[in-house]
Design goal:
Shape: globular
Number of domains: 2
Strand content: 15-25%
């Protein structure tokens, strides 16, 4: 199954950059334009300059920004802002964070993993990819010769064999211990003991890995690997481009938090709302609750008992509608036949195919309708109340069992089905093989 290896990491020289909290950044795909500006201004060595190559007005072609980023990487290496380690290692990463007043710890292992074609089912995705972000990652990877941010992957450890293996490492001095402004804390230990590295390798040798986040990064690395193989014609399989940087987290980890991507819609016209109301009656049993800040306990109870699959706000003033499927057989007839049975029962699939597709007639990239995604239900409702959007569709949090079942079936969930919170940071250590 998966081949997990230690790697020669590149990381910041903390004596030169000072507090690492000022230089690490979120991954490229969640940084808004305003956040990007703030990161640029925060520190001249902030990792956003490598993670997200930006075009400039003077650029003559689309590759100029990547070439400029490569020059910056070389300069930081020459100036010892970044240093390349001498010893291959796997890195233990404790990520502390809070959500809704509760404290969490998510533990991961940062390593390189052999790239495998999807059809081998060694690395298993649960979502598809889009062309534009994949093209960006391919250009960055091929120019920098680096994985600037890790793929986030999951594994099963039913016998809990990993915790006792790494517990001794946590008693050693970490190489990184930093706290961000938002309260997140990152502690990283370097594992170089040959016996322990062999045990970790053996553990992963007989099990698959499931991509939680970073599908575009993985596919980009896979494309780059194919390109290099075609270019070189003869390879050993041990070249650096055969591997990709991953952070591996146990599916049963208590800090594995998955948020539901709620949908926000601007409808074509006011008549669409009435049409939606009639369509919902055909497929769902509905119960309405007057919105107030204290309704969430009742909503959660109905979600937990499967009395409601989702909730909609915006059909009538101040009413939140909880919707339960009347007849799954009728719902499944609206799903593409090639999808698995587990897919056809997913809440997010029901929203996409029944509410958006069947009732509202929305197709992918429909220019006549504005769809946004938010991961906090109160924020989603507030945006409707404030008139920014007309409708909020609230989903239940995805279950890790469903994500695994979809991946095991070789199927893929609809886009924006999961949000693993918080995102892994970029810039703690990275895989540079240039």
């Amino acid at each position: 199954m998966a081949e997990v290896k230690p790697f020669i990491a590149t990381s910041y020289n903390q004596e030169k950059v000072g507090n690492l909290a000022d230089v690490i950044c979120p991954p490229y795909d969640v940084v808004s334009p305003s956040e990007e500006i703030a990161l640029y201004q925060k520190n001249p060595y902030n990792f956003i300059r490598l993670e997200k190559a930006q075009p400039e007005f003077e650029d003559a072609n689309r590759d100029d920004r990547y070439i400029r980023t490569k020059s910056l990487l070389n300069r930081w290496l020459d100036e010892a802002i970044l240093v390349k380690n001498r010893t291959p290692a796997i890195y233990l990463h404790d990520h502390f964070f809070s959500f809704k007043g509760k404290e969490y710890l998510r533990r991961g292992l940062m390593a390189t993993v052999r790239l495998e074609e999807w059809n081998k089912m060694i690395i298993r995705p649960h979502e598809g990819t889009l062309a534009a972000p994949k093209a960006d990652r391919i250009r960055l990877l091929s120019t920098l010769k680096a994985n600037t941010s890790p793929v986030f992957a999951l594994y099963e450890d039913r016998g809990q064999k990993i915790p006792p293996l790494v517990e001794r490492e946590r008693r050693k001095k970490p190489i990184i211990n930093t706290t961000l402004e938002n309260g997140e804390r990152h502690i990283v230990w370097e594992i170089t003991d040959a016996e322990l590295l062999n045990k970790l390798n053996s553990f992963f040798n007989d099990r698959p890995l499931y991509i939680a986040d970073g599908h575009h990064r993985y596919e980009s690395a896979l494309v780059y690997k194919r390109e290099q193989e075609a270019l070189l014609r003869s390879t050993t399989g041990q070249e650096s481009f055969n591997f990709v940087l991953m952070t591996l987290v146990d599916m049963a980890d208590s800090g594995l938090l998955i948020l539901p991507p709620h949908r926000l819609l601007c409808l074509r016209s006011l008549s669409s709302a009435e049409h939606l109301r009639r369509g919902l009656e055909k497929f769902f049993d509905a119960r309405s609750i007057a919105y107030n800040p204290f309704i969430w306990d009742e909503v959660d109870k109905m979600f937990a008992r499967d009395e409601a699959n989702l909730a909609i706000y915006g059909l009538n003033d101040n009413l939140l509608y909880l919707l339960g499927v009347k007849d799954y057989a009728a719902i499944e007839k609206l799903m593409p036949h090639f999808h698995s049975e587990i897919y056809k029962k997913l809440d997010v699939a029901i929203v996409d195919h029944v509410i958006l597709g069947e009732i509202l007639g929305v197709k992918d990239s429909d220019p006549n309708i504005d769809i946004a995604f938010r991961y906090d239900r109160e924020d989603a409702l507030r945006r409707v109340i404030d008139g920014e959007y007309q409708l909020a569709i609230l989903l239940r949090p995805p279950k890790i069992e469903d994500i695994k079942a979809i991946a095991d079936a070789g199927d893929q969930m609809p886009r924006k089905s999961t949000y693993f919170y918080p995102k892994l940071p970029s810039g703690l250590v990275f895989y540079y093989f240039g």
